[in-house]
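Per reviewer request, we include the raw input and output of the structure prediction for the construct analysed in the revised manuscript.
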Amino acid sequence: MKKFLNIIKNPKVKMVIILSFLLFIYTSICAFSYANSVYNDIQNSVFRLHVLANSDSKEDQKLKLLVRDNLLEYMNKLCSSCKTKAEAIEIVEQNKEEFKQIALDTIRNAGYSYNVNINIGNFEFPTKNYGDISLPAGYYDALRVEIGEAKGQNWWCVMFPPLCFVDISSGVVPEDSKKLLEENMNEEEFALISNDSDNKIQFKFKLLELFNASGLITAKK
């Protein structure tokens, strides 16, 4: 211990320690700034769907998927010409009651009497993979659909661009959806969420997940 104290008293060693600490602080700030900027840009490029089932029973989970399918079919027709997230949200806002009615009709036709709550807001999502596209965890603007008591498992997707329509058999996002993402992001941001990216980009994605997991950049708007 005494030898160690003598070592750190050395002016040169002190300087190395101080410079190393300052470098660590600077690197951390740069990494946080990068992650925060990229996360905000990704968040501002997508509009998501969040459906909560009444319960975890097989029947309620099956019903959740029926509601999801009908809402997505309607959304696909409604927003087929949308080029930006803002356009998609505006259209959904204008037709929110119709979304609710479609959900209610689906539920009634399936023989249930659950009520439905529909809200457009900023909600927390985990890291999710959509075919060959991955979106980091965080808070995203979304259409939230609560069926009945909404105590069942969640179902997450992306309404704009339409990543919900992933080809399940091939696990590949349609090219039209990728094109919309590319148009709403810069080159590096799109590379960041693409699963075929190189190791450097994958490391940056992990960095983004790390900051999100720490809660530093997932605060609600």
